[in-house]
Design goal:
The chain is 59% helix and 9% strand. It is α+β, with helices and mostly antiparallel strands. The N terminus is likely disordered.
Length: 473
C-alpha cells in the first residue's frame, strides 16, 4: 500500500472512535453601560463542567497571560488541552505546573494521561503510581491507566482498572475501552456483552467499537458489516483493509491500532523538543522549555522516551534540531524573566487564536441562523402562495400600466371577463396580466379554449409554490 493511502486509512481509523470536541465560544463582558466583573477561573471551571473544554482553555489562557505562574490555571489548561485532543500542549502546561509544585498528585496524573495520548505507556504508568502515592484516588486515574496497560499488552491489568472505575460509577468511555481490551485478549463474548447496554441505547461510538471487537477477534466480515452500518459507504470501503489487518496483531499492537490508528511498521511521532536537564554535578535544577513546543514531526526513528530526574519530575531529551542549535547547557538555559516573557507571548498568541476561532464560530452560527430564517421565510411563502393555475391575457413591462391594460381587455371582452379579477406576477423583463386562480390546470385550459373561440388571445400559466402573485387594484 502506498504511504499516502496508508496515512489516509490510519487517519480514518484513528478518528473512528473520536468525537470531535466542542468549539470555543465568545463571552460578553458588558451589561448595559456598566462593566460586568467576571472571574475567568470560575468561568473556565464552569465551561469544563458544561463539557466545553475549548472555551475552558481560552479562559485559562487569559489568566496565564496575566500570571504565567498560576498553578491552578496551568493545571486547568493542561486538562482542557488534553480534553480537546492536544496532548503536546497539555504536556507543556503540566510540566510547567510540576516545576511550581513537584508533589502535586493531580499534576502527575495529568502528565500521565497526556503521555498515554503520546503512546508512552511506561512513563505514564510511573506517573500514575506517583499520583496515587501523593494521594490521588486510584479510581481517578483508572481510565487512562487502563489504556496504558493495554498499550503494553497487559490486558488483565487494564480490565481491572476499567472495572474499578465502573464499580464506582457508570462511564461509557470506560465501558467501550473495557470491551476493546477484552477483544484484544481474545474474549469476544465478554466484549460484546460489555457493549450491549450501550448498543441498546444506540450509542454510536459503541457501535463503532463493536466493529473493532469483531475485527480483532477474527470476524472480519462481521466487522465490515458493522462498519457499513454506521459509516458512509466510501469511509467503510476505506476502512476494510484496516479491519482485515487487526486479527494478526499482538495485543499491544491492537491497542495502538484501534485507539491511535498506528500499525507496528508505521512511523511514530517523536516527543516534544524540550531542554536537556543540567548535569547534577553542576548543582543546578533540570530545565524544561517554557515556550509551547512545535507540533511533533514524524520520523522513522523510535519516539524519544521520557525520563525522570532525581526528584521524580518528568524530563525529556531534546530532538536533533534543538541539540544542533546549542553548544552548552549554559546557552540553552534562559533566565526566569526571559522564560516568563516567552510564555506570556505564547499564551497571548494562543488567546488570539482562540478569539479567531470564536469569531469564526460566531460567523458560522450567524450564517446558519440566516440560512434557517431564509428557509423559514421560503416555507412561509410557499404556504401562503401554493402552486396555482391561471390564464394570462396580456403582459406589460411597466407594472403600473397593467390596470389600464385590464380596462382595455375588459372593455373589449366584457362578457368573457365578467366576474374575473386581475392579478400579476413578474416574468423575466415583463409582468404577466393574469386572471384566476382556476381550480385545476384542466379548468384553466378549458377557459383558454373558450376565450380563443371568442377572440381573446390567452394561454394557461402555472405558478410554483412560493411564487408571489399580486392582485391589481
Amino acid at each position: 500500500m502506498k504511504r499516502k493511502s496508508l496515512v489516509s486509512l490510519l487517519a480514518l481509523a484513528s478518528a473512528f472512535l473520536i468525537i470531535p470536541p466542542a468549539a470555543a465560544q465568545m463571552d460578553s463582558t458588558t451589561a448595559g453601560d456598566e462593566p460586568l466583573i467576571t472571574d475567568p477561573m470560575a468561568q473556565a471551571r464552569d465551561a469544563m463542567a458544561r463539557g466545553d473544554p475549548a472555551e475552558a482553555l481560552s479562559r485559562y489562557l487569559r489568566v496565564l497571560a496575566r500570571d504565567p505562574g498560576d498553578l491552578d490555571a496551568l493545571s486547568g489548561a493542561g486538562s482542557a488541552a488534553l480534553a480537546v485532543g492536544d496532548a503536546d500542549a497539555a504536556i507543556n502546561f503540566f510540566v510547567r505546573a510540576e516545576k511550581i509544585s513537584p508533589r502535586d498528585g493531580r499534576v502527575k496524573a495529568g502528565l500521565g494521561s497526556a503521555l498515554v495520548q503520546k503512546e508512552q505507556p511506561r512513563a505514564a504508568l510511573r506517573l500514575f503510581d506517583n499520583a496515587t502515592d501523593l494521594g490521588v484516588p486510584p479510581v481517578d486515574v483508572a481510565l487512562d491507566r487502563g489504556l496504558a496497560y493495554d498499550l503494553r499488552g497487559e490486558n488483565k491489568k487494564a480490565q481491572a482498572e476499567y472495572n474499578l472505575l465502573l464499580r464506582t460509577r457508570p462511564d461509557a468511555e470506560a465501558t467501550r475501552r473495557l470491551a476493546l481490551s477484552l477483544a484484544m485478549s481474545g474474549d469476544k463474548v465478554g466484549a460484546l456483552a460489555a457493549l450491549d447496554p450501550l448498543l441498546q441505547k444506540r450509542d454510536i461510538a459503541a457501535w463503532r467499537a463493536r466493529a473493532f471487537v469483531l475485527a480483532m477477534t477474527g470476524d472480519t466480515p462481521g466487522a465490515e458489516s458493522a462498519a457499513y452500518a454506521v459509516l458512509p459507504r466510501y469511509q467503510a470501503d476505506a476502512l476494510k483493509p484496516f479491519l482485515s489487518r487487526l486479527p494478526a496483531l499482538k495485543a499491544a499492537e491492537k491497542a495502538a491500532a484501534v485507539h491511535f490508528g498506528h500499525f507496528p511498521e508505521d512511523k511514530v511521532p517523536t516527543e516534544m523538543a524540550v531542554v536537556s536537564p543540567v548535569p547534577a554535578s553542576k548543582g543546578m535544577p533540570a530545565a524544561v522549555a517554557a515556550a509551547p513546543q512545535p507540533s511533533p514531526s514524524y520520523s522513522s526513528t523510535p519516539a524519544a522516551r521520557p525520563r525522570f530526574d532525581s526528584s521524580g519530575r518528568l524530563v525529556m531529551k531534546p530532538d536533533s534540531a534543538s541539540t544542533a542549535s546549542t553548544t552548552t547547557s549554559a546557552t540553552v538555559e534562559t533566565s526566569p524573566a526571559r522564560q516568563a516573557a516567552q510564555q506570556k507571548a505564547a499564551d497571548e498568541r494562543s488567546l488570539a487564536e482562540d478569539r479567531r476561532a470564536a469569531q469564526r464560530k460566531a460567523a458560522a452560527e450567524k450564517a446558519a441562523a440566516e440560512k434557517k430564517a431564509k428557509a423559514q421565510e421560503e416555507a412561509k411563502a410557499r404556504k401562503s402562495n401554493p402552486e396555482r393555475y391561471w390564464v394570462q391575457i396580456a403582459s406589460g413591462a411597466y407594472k403600473p400600466d397593467l390596470d389600464k391594460e385590464w380596462d382595455k381587455q375588459k372593455k373589449a371582452h366584457g362578457k368573457l371577463l365578467a366576474g374575473k379579477t386581475p392579478w400579476t406576477t413578474p416574468y423575466k423583463t415583463t409582468n404577466r396580466l393574469l386572471i384566476g386562480p382556476f381550480p385545476s390546470k384542466g379548468a384553466a385550459q378549458d377557459y383558454v379554449n373558450e376565450a380563443r373561440a371568442a377572440g381573446l388571445s390567452s394561454f394557461p400559466v402555472t405558478t410554483s409554490a412560493g411564487q408571489k402573485v399580486e392582485r391589481i387594484n
